[in-house]
Amino acid sequence: MTAPAGAAGGARGGGPLAGAGPLIDAHAHFYHPRSPRGDWAEVNAARLRAGERIGITYHVASILGSWGASSPVYFPSPADVTAGNDAMYAICEREWRRVRAYVTVNPNHTAHAVAEIARGAARGAVGVKLAASRRADDPLLDPVCEAAARHGFPVLHHVWQHRTREWPSQEISDGADLAALARRHPGVTFILAHIGGGGDYMHTFPAIADAPNVVVDVSGSGVDRGMLDEAVLRLGVERILWGSDVTMETGLAKLMGFEAIRLAAERMALIRAGNALRIFPAGSFPEAATAAAGAAR
Ligand SMILES: [Zn+2]
């Protein structure tokens, strides 16, 4: 019998809902005045407030252009990409203790995308966010991945799992496509977004099993019984990152789910923060690194 992770234990003591220990949300988003939400500021504040209550040490977040206001969410114009990234860096600088940025890029505008990655690195970004602007195995993604490699950035890719037909405004792409890209770029870690966020995760797990530089984040609103067990069984805990995307309550539910399947505390610590500390550039999360080192002593 292994020791339970104790995710819900903290709540009973009035501490963070997710229990003690560093917790990195590898898939977060913020909004800005040029996005369609009139309540953008309140939503941003709510994320930080909920993060405090849950016990999130760092939100690693992106802004997808104008979120559809002036160009499509997944095909943002260069001007919207730049404006969204600027808004993200401004949040990061204001909330440096707990927020980190992904550079969002649209690979259809290759030169702009590569320049944005360099600019993001200079502004303190820690990863690249690829919207579904192109199928994941498309050669257009290669220069973007090479730029990510130069900066040691992981690449978070929005994937719809095993989509069998085209949908408007989003390129078809799944785990098999991302695995093909990952094989071409063995020095880059790819984060397959939100296994709880749409489609067939039971297609995803075997599709990426032999691509060790693909990890998954557990974000999304899906909290199916069995999803987490299968992820642990088929990928191993070293290839799972915690994240919430836009539904933070289901992010918390997944931590409780790992507790329910009695994942040992030291394995849970990898999903909560240890894997992110390994995958993102060194020094990205000083508070989590200090806490993790303290716990290991
Ligand atoms: Zn997302």
Question: What would you say this structure looks like, in words?
Answer:
This protein is α/β, with parallel strands linked by helices. It has one domain: Metal-dependent hydrolases (TIM Barrel, Alpha-Beta Barrel), CATH 3.20.20. The protein has helices spanning 9-12, 40-54, 78-94, 110-122, 141-151, 175-184, 201-208, 227-235, 248-260, 265-279, 286-296, and strands spanning 24-29, 58-62, 99-105, 127-130, 155-157, 190-192, 214-217, 240-241. It has an eight-stranded parallel beta sheet. Helix 4 (110-122) packs parallel to helix 5. The model is unreliable at 1-10 (pLDDT under 50). Bound molecules: zinc ion. Zinc ion binds at residues 27, 29, 245.
Write the layout of secondary structure elements.
Elements: H1 9-12, E1 24-29, H2 40-54, E2 58-62, H3 78-94, E3 99-105, H4 110-122, E4 127-130, H5 141-151, E5 155-157, H6 175-184, E6 190-192, H7 201-208, E7 214-217, H8 227-235, E8 240-241, H9 248-260, H10 265-279, H11 286-296
